[in-house]
Amino acid sequence: LFDRTPDAWDLDAAQVQLVAEVVFRDPPFGPFDYLIPEPLAPRLKPGARVQVPLGASREVVGYCTSVTSKPASGRPLKAIAAVIDDVPLVERKMLELTRWMSDYYLCPWGQVLHGVVPAGVRGNAGTRETTFLSLSAEGRQILASGVDRSGEKPKKVLPAHLEILRILGTSPRELTPVELGEFASCSIAQITGLRKKKWIASDVRRVRSSSHEELPLARTEPLALHPAQSHALAAINRAIDRRTSATILLHGVTGSGKTEVYIQAIERVISFGQQAIVLVPEISLTPQTRQRFRSRFDRVAVLHSHLSDAERHYHWEQIARGEVQVIVGARSAVFAPAPHLGLIVIDEEHDGSFKQSEAPRYHARDVAEHRALQLGIPLVLGTATPSLESYYRARSGKYELVPMPDRVEGRELPHVGTIDLRVEFQSRSSRGSIGRQLHTAIAQAIAEKGQVILLLNRRGYSTHVQCPACGFVAKCEHCDLALTHHREEQLLVCHHCDFTTKPPERCPDCTFDGIRYSGLGTEKLEAEIKARFPAAKVLRMDSDTMQKPGSHEAALAKFRSGEVQILLGTQMIAKGLDFPNVTLVGVINADTALHLPDFRAAERTFQLVTQVAGRTGRGELGGRVLVQTFSPDHPAIEAAVDHDYAKFVGRELPDRVAHGFPPFTTLLRLIVRGDSESKTREFATMAAESWKKLLEAKQCEHRILGPAPCAVARLRGKFRFHALATSVDSDTLRATFREASSTWKTPDDVQWVIDVDAIDL
Ligand code: ADP
Ligand code: ZN
Questions:
Q1: Ligand 1 in reach of 226 Cβ (< 6 A)
Q2: Closest C-alpha residue for ligand 1 atom 20
Q3: Torsion over CA of 304, 305, 311 and 315, rounded to 10 degrees?
Q4: How far is 707 from 713, CA to CA, in rounded Å?
Q5: Residue of higher predicted confidence among 252 and 411
Q6: Of the candidates 640, 642, 631, the residue with the CA atom closest to the CA atom of residue 420
Q7: Order of strands across the sheet with 82-83?
Q8: Which of UniProt's keywords are assigned here (predicted)?
Q9: Which in 292, 310, 398, 570 has the greatest CB count within 10 A?
Q10: What pLDDT score does 716 carry?
Q11: What is the structure's pLDDT at 488?
Q12: Nearest ligand, measured from the Cα of 481
């Protein structure tokens, strides 16, 4: 890849040319070879951007991925027009990592590179070009002699000019033209005149227009670890000391003190002069998390999504210079250019936000694993509810599993009770979405000066059909997944296999005639709570109310201060929050996630209930959890109630095997969208068939589900279809897709994307 000199060929220097391989973000993606003109050769390194001619009349920006000497072949190459970055945007190891991503995620290399380097870094945000002046050798002579000998006859130099040279020559630092003009009380034109005579030399450099240093925090001391924490730390330290890559899955219940373990492991790598990256879900980048790290380390960079381009650029450069010890950030911080990375930590590794939903559609956990492997350093994955992918890898010996089964300080996990909504509805006394039992519990918690968190996990489109009397949910005959109600067509549709059926008028199980078609949103819930508890202060947190930068922090600060008694929201309130005063957590309807048309629905439900339950019982007051559900005996809910992860996987894994879903297979999701429903469906069908043919030709065991309409069947006016392909043979599955898709002729108004290891179905 780098500086390969062709040793097999014995060539005259004249026949060899220096060639750069260049890739592009947009089609045609490349790679293409370009000639490196002599003067540019010393400046161009792999990982830098270049300006190159493309086609007949265009010049475009591309990424140079390699520089090699090649024998001149028949066809002359076009030449690079300009080198944009004197310092490559990505260094060699990162270039290799992005190439792996390109191959694994079936995403053009140029698109990966574009996605990995922040816009602020590409655009040099927050810096400007500045001219710095200094005395040239000639200028110094003139200043010493006062005589100009450049002409035919020596001439005395004007005193005003000598004064300018003197001020510049005695300045302790380089001056800009404006500064010199001010200090020497002269015009810029006079300075320009002296620069033309070459008495004053100039240099143009980029400088920062502002500083983004955060104020230092008071330092706090390491905590004395509990035995399970010490045991976990020892396992991580062993991996650090072995100086080989290893992945440790830290399976610690909520409140088991995982963060303290990460921090003490990071202290160790810092003592070796190395750096650490800590990835957390975006939503957890609260001031609380920032402070936890900033109060323990001197130089922490926190990369969250509300940074300006200039701030991001500033942090990136500081990290690249090795001036940052710990990088705490969301998904994309996995690419932080730390020069001596010693450890990567991913907290809440099960969280869906680690998968990027646009190109490159990478999963930060898998990229981190690859980066750790490449550098020979450990990766620590921490969670109370491991993703089945990680759990399965641990069980098959790929990861080391380290359990932390108890909360710190001998605190108990909260008691979780279920409320059977079928019973609540039979009594007919309950109206709205909060049953009698939950109402009483909320009233009691507030009366006792505790705080309440209410979770309503409703995604906009989860319009499954449910009987309120018996909990029956309409399911696909083939996939055992909830059918989605299409209001306009009055049909129930399976979003995996396209099975359709008419919605039942009466419940097929209990003949109740009040089947429900639509759920409830956070807004409606807020109104209901305010009506039920007029004296309490209520705060709603969901993606609608938390749009503005800082709104999340502000809301949490209000809750922390005790000003607000009831916090209600979507899954964004389930994660990582540590409020000792929360004595009640209520789940309004645990089934909303359960009946999403997604094979991970049970896993999501288990994770969500377990995580939100973990928000209580964190202080002296203790706490309890009430889960409203139509299916209290669903395995995922039963296991969450018992805080029993083993029970959950014991039920879930065999199901995944039976249906050939991950973690036992690799899953690729092809999404096709277009203006016309029939054309889009037609293309998706053709695409799936051509892929299937290749898979069969390679005798690769596989399954292709669909094409069927996506769960969001129409988005921004476009019809959407998807097909899911699974196989244990990941390489062949991806290779056949690459081959098949290269033959597709995509109509103008149809687009497709491929999502490797898709998690959103
Ligand atoms: P987790 O991330 O596993 O849910 P946290 O790291 O948030 O747990 O820890 C829960 C609480 O316990 C925090 O308030 C933390 O400060 C405290 N804690 C952690 N370790 C210790 C310890 N060894 N001694 C005392 N308190 C601890
Ligand atoms: Zn189906």
A1: yes
A2: 257
A3: 40
A4: 12
A5: 252
A6: 631
A7: 32-35, 16-23, 58-71, 49-54, 82-83
A8: ATP-binding, DNA replication, DNA-binding, Helicase, Hydrolase, Isomerase, Metal-binding, Nucleotide-binding, Primosome, Zinc
A9: 570
A10: 72
A11: 63
A12: 2
Residue 668 CA to ligand 2 centre (angstroms)? 17
Locus of tokens 């996630």: 593
Q: What CA–CA distance (Å, rounded) separates 385 from 331?
A: 19
End-to-end CA distance of the chain: 37
Alpha-carbon gap, residue 37 to 42, rounded angstroms = 10
Q: By C-alpha distance, which of 264, 240, 232, 250 is closest to 372?
A: 240
Res. 579: pLDDT tops 90: no
Q: Are 300 and 276 in contact (CB under 8 A)?
A: no
Average pLDDT (150-156) is: 86
Which residues are within 8 A (CB) of 529 and not within 5 positions of it... i.e. 6 or more apart? 434, 454, 536, 538, 566, 568
**Ligand 1, from 225, 260, 328: best to mutate by most atoms within 8 Å of Cβ?**
260
* Token pair belonging to 161: 């000019």
Separation CA 579–CA 441 (nearest Å): 19
Q: In a 10 Å sphere around its CB, with 0-12 CB exposed, 13-18 middle and 19+ buried, how is residue 27 labelled?
A: exposed
Q: What is the signed CA dihedral for 532, 538, 542, 545, rounded to 10 degrees?
A: 120
**Torsion sign over Cα 595, 419, 574, 234:** negative
At 691, give phi and psi (nearest 5°): -65, -45
Q: Is 700 annotated as a binding residue?
A: no
- Give the C-alpha separation, 93 to 105, whole Å: 18
**Ligand 1 atom nearest 259 alpha carbon:** 6
Report whether residue 255 contacts ligand 1, using a CB cutoff of 6 Å.
Answer: yes
* CA torsion angle 589 591 593 596 (round to 10): -140
| 720-743 confidence digits (pLDDT tens) | 999 999 999 999 999 999 999 999
Ligand 1, atom 18: closest residue by C-alpha: 257
Side chain identity, residue 258: K
Torsion angle of C-alpha atoms 380, 384, 280, 381, degrees rounded to 10: 10
Q: Report whether residue 220 contacts ligand 1, using a CB cutoff of 6 Å.
A: no
Instruction: Identify the pLDDT of residue 73.
Output: 76
**Is 710 annotated as a binding-site member?**
no
**Which two structure tokens, joined as six digits, stand for 663?**
């973690």
- ipTM of this model? 0.96
Distance CA 122, CA 499 (A): 47
Name the nearest CA neighbour of 99 among 136, 56, 66. Answer: 66
Task: Give the residue among 713, 708, 707 at the shortest CA–CA distance from 685.
Answer: 707
CA-based nearest residue to 708, from 443, 479, 406, 537: 479
Tokens matching residue 375:
């550098």
